[in-house]
Amino acid sequence: MNRIHSILLYFIFLCAGIFFLAPSENARAMTAHTQKEIYREMSKQFLAGKKKFAIRCTNQREAVSLVNKLNSPKEEVYYRVLYEMAQTADKKSNTDDGDYLYGNIWQVNCEYRNGKLYFSDIQYLESCKQRKAVNRIVKKVAGKIRRQGKNNYERIALVYRYIIRHVTYDKRKHCLYSAYAGFCKKKTVCNGYALMAYKLLTKLKIPCRFISGSIRDGKKWYPHAWNIVKLKGKWYNLDACQDDADDGQVYADYFLKSDKVFKKDHKKDAFYRTKAFRKKYKISSKNYK
Q1: pLDDT-based confidence at 3, cuts 50/70/90?
Q2: Is residue 1 scored above 80 in pLDDT?
Q3: CA–CA separation, 47 and 104 (whole Å)
């Protein structure tokens, strides 16, 4: 009897061990039927800071297509998925989703097995705890800017000035990319500058978008990020990173500019150059005066 009991206990512990050692295979999976439902569940898990999760997908075609895109050798195809995913969860009452979520995802691995999409090795630029710290700072800084600025132009200018004077461009080999790094460590790169501007302007209820793309330095193009902002019914380009020379001055070479100015050395990712996007966010043909 004891021998049987021992064998039974061993079997139970073995099964439990397998369950806990391989959570990706046994993770509780939400069911999704369409691409939109998959994206909504992805955004929910990403916002929660999950490092791995599973989604049961009844549409094999959509699932395989998503995996192929996320594993595409073309970075723009990969980022388009993350961009489209983030837009499905963009609520006006929340500054953590939408463009901010898109700008904070660093790496995602995705596989499709046995009717489920398995997401793993997910890396974020900013943890949930850090995001809460950012939100506390944003609330305080935005409140101060709201009181100081008499109109949206002054408030945009104050946000621009705050970022440039508060942040030093991070030139280290392993540089910091997040808004948290900019707000709390006072060091970041273009991605952090753009996320800081997005966070503050959105908190001030000034329409703003985070834009990813590339910038030209001489003959070479490098990954870059900046913003577009709406003022008096028109959209303008904004690049605080490029106007920060780390000399204590606030320059305006890239402040509220037209596409004519930005197209000289800026190039948006393909999903910002679609006809639908350009129609919805029509950039002013002239610089703001």
Answers
A1: very low
A2: no
A3: 10
CA 267 – CA 263 distance, rounded (Å):
6
Q: Mind listing the pLDDT tens digit for each residue in 148-176? A: 999 999 999 999 999 999 999 999 999 99
pLDDT at 92 (0 to 100): 83
pTM recorded for the entire structure: 0.89
* C-beta atoms surrounding 32 within 10 Å: 21
Query: Phi and psi dihedrals of 86, rounded to 5?
Result: -65, -35
Tell me the pLDDT band of 28, cut-offs 50, 70 and 90: low
